[in-house]
Amino acid sequence: MDQEIEYIQTESEVQDQILLAALKLFAEKGYFNTSLIDIKEAAGIKTTAIIYQHFNTKQMIATQLHATIFSSLNVSIDDIRRKNEKPSEQLRSIVDLLFKLTDEAPDVMRFLLILNVNEFLPEARPFHESAAFIKILKIIESGIKEGEIRTITPQLGFAHFFGIIDNTLRLVLTGFLDRKADFYQSQAWLAAWNAIVKK
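Below the sequence we write its predicted structure tokens.
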């Protein structure tokens, strides 16, 4: 029994190694410029046959990454909504999370913001249909009802607010802005919040 548990853990660890290697390569080289041999080498595993034990295709690896990243984002937004009462505090915490991820997990943020996922995952639901997006819209709707955010279509509020955040993070990730995301965070927050706050 102990050997069985150890084997399952090892299999799980190998799968994680494959996913992490693929994430890094997709973020750096792009999906189409990354081969299974590249992933094998970056993951430090012996043969591509080991990859096939876990994933039938490179697209399945990308699908798993996409699902994992969006699931994690969704859980984080739930956590933020539980810990913060006011919509402004919730939005601020989401911005804090995105800037922190940009500095600490840039490959995740490149996958989210830079890669055109629809090119290689045409079946993937777009961000505006994700649970995370719907929860952010609800935060904006609450902010409008509570008088923190000006009367605006929630989708337009999202576009105004996160357009600024998204563009700032993209400029950091592409090197156009040459400091860590944290350096630009307070300026970006103020610009984004001023775009939707009720004055």
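Residues 2-29 form the longest helix (28 residues).
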